[in-house]
Each structure stands twice: as structure tokens, then as C-alpha cells.
């Protein structure tokens, strides 16, 4: 997808990694892709040093990797770890060696989703239902973008999730300005209001208000 407010437009670093603390690394308006990607044996050699208990498959969109099934199988066999996929939900990879999935739902209204991502929301809705009926642990998250994805839209997303299963955990996240647009950072009060509103429909709702410690350890929530 081509989300207009994606953090990947601002820099090449994963903000969820502890060493990449927000504001501590130089960013660029034109985030370049790496010159080459690591081969699987190179990835495994680096992970051998860490002996991971959890591996998070993220980036821009890990589900698009044609070797996703082989990669997750290698992680399971070598480390016995939990494999956690962060995805926009537009494509659904083979899940045989995936333990948990978090689907980031950008919007649920078709026109808004089409404008923001340049893709239809319908495949995401259908894949979300498939995830819910699979063996993986499923969570969902949305970014509250003032002036675009407002609280009313977050509420509509929650209603969709509740129609699938009201016990699916849902996380409301703040927006950090990125890309060429005028949307401001989400305030903690807006996140709190959204959490209160969508708790009418879902049993397990929480929100990250943009505090650094929450951002750094937010990744732990899905397992």
C-alpha cells in the first residue's frame, strides 16, 4: 500500500527497536531502500548470536516476501521462538509457522481507505476474518490521525472488529507527522477518548499515548 502518512517516508529506521530511540537518529525526507537484502543464512547467522525467544516480522510489509513461509519455518526449527507478524492485512501469507498476527487497519470506510492507501479495504476485511478463524493469536491496531482518521472512524473500525469477535484485542495508536501533509501529532487526550469510545464494542482495548517508553515496548503487546 502507499499510505500518505507512513513513517517509512521519514527514515529508514524501525522506531520500535530500543537502539533506534525516537529523535536520536538522523532521518531523511527520502528514505532509501537498502542496496541489497540479506540472504536467509546471513539472517540466521546474526540471530544465532541473540538466540531469540520472539521474532517480529515487520518492515514495510513482511507478508509480501515470497520466502515468508521458509523464513518463519527456519526460525521455528532453529530457535523454537514465537513468530509475530505485523501486517496491513492486504495479503495473507502461509501461516503454518506464524504464532501471532497484528493487523494494522488504516480505515474501514472504503473511500477514506482508498484515498489514504491507494488500495481497497475489502481484501483486508476478508483476510482479517480469515485470521480470526485461524490458529494464530490475532490483534488489531489503528492510528488515530487528527484531521483524517478521526475518532468516529476508529469507532467504525471497532464495530467491524466486534462483528468478527469482540474479544480481539485492539490498540489505538498516535500519529507522528510523516510525509508531505499537514496532519499534527495525536494528543494523549484524543487517544484516551478513542479508547473510551471503542470500549463500548470491544472487551480488550488499550491506547499508546505517545510516551517514549510505551513506543519502545509496544511491540510486546501481541504475545
Automatic annotation (TrEMBL):
<dbReference type="GO" id="GO:0003824">
    <property type="term" value="F:catalytic activity"/>
</dbReference>
<dbReference type="GO" id="GO:0051539">
    <property type="term" value="F:4 iron, 4 sulfur cluster binding"/>
</dbReference>
<dbReference type="GO" id="GO:0046872">
    <property type="term" value="F:metal ion binding"/>
</dbReference>
<protein>
    <submittedName>
        <fullName>Radical SAM domain protein</fullName>
    </submittedName>
</protein>
<dbReference type="Pfam" id="PF04055">
    <property type="entry name" value="Radical_SAM"/>
</dbReference>
<keyword id="KW-0408">Iron</keyword>
<dbReference type="InterPro" id="IPR058240">
    <property type="entry name" value="rSAM_sf"/>
</dbReference>
<feature type="domain" description="Radical SAM core">
    <location>
        <begin position="3"/>
        <end position="161"/>
    </location>
</feature>
<keyword id="KW-0479">Metal-binding</keyword>
<keyword id="KW-0411">Iron-sulfur</keyword>
<keyword id="KW-0949">S-adenosyl-L-methionine</keyword>
<keyword id="KW-0004">4Fe-4S</keyword>
<dbReference type="InterPro" id="IPR013785">
    <property type="entry name" value="Aldolase_TIM"/>
</dbReference>
<dbReference type="InterPro" id="IPR007197">
    <property type="entry name" value="rSAM"/>
</dbReference>
<dbReference type="InterPro" id="IPR034457">
    <property type="entry name" value="Organic_radical-activating"/>
</dbReference>
Amino acid at each position: 500500500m502507499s499510505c500518505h502518512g507512513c513513517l517509512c517516508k521519514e527514515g529508514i529506521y524501525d522506531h520500535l527497536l530500543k537502539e533506534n530511540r525516537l529523535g536520536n537518529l538522523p532521518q531523511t525526507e527520502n528514505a532509501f531502500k537498502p542496496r541489497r537484502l540479506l540472504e536467509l543464512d546471513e539472517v540466521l547467522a546474526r540471530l544465532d548470536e541473540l538466540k531469540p525467544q520472539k521474532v517480529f516480522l515487520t518492515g514495510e510489509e513482511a507478508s509480501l516476501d515470497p520466502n515468508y513461509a521458509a523464513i518463519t519455518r527456519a526460525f521455528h526449527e532453529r530457535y523454537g521462538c514465537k513468530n509475530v507478524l505485523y501486517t496491513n492485512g492486504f495479503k495473507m501469507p502461509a501461516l503454518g509457522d506464524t504464532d501471532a498476527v497484528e493487523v494494522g487497519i488504516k480505515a474501514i470506510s472504503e473511500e477514506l481507505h482508498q484515498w489514504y492507501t491507494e488500495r481497497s479495504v475489502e481484501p483486508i476485511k476478508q483476510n482479517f476474518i480469515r485470521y480470526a478463524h485461524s490458529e494464530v493469536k490475532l490483534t488489531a491496531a489503528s492510528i488515530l490521525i487528527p484531521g483524517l482518521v478521526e475518532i468516529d472512524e476508529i469507532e467504525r473500525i471497532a464495530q467491524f472488529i466486534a462483528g468478527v469477535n469482540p474479544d480481539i484485542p485492539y490498540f489505538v495508536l498516535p500519529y507522528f507527522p510523516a510525509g508531505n501533509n499537514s496532519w499534527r501529532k495525536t494528543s494523549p487526550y484524543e487517544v484516551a477518548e478513542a479508547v473510551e469510545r471503542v470500549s463500548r464494542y470491544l472487551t480488550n482495548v488499550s491506547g499508546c499515548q505517545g510516551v517514549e517508553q510505551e513506543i519502545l515496548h509496544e511491540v510486546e503487546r501481541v504475545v
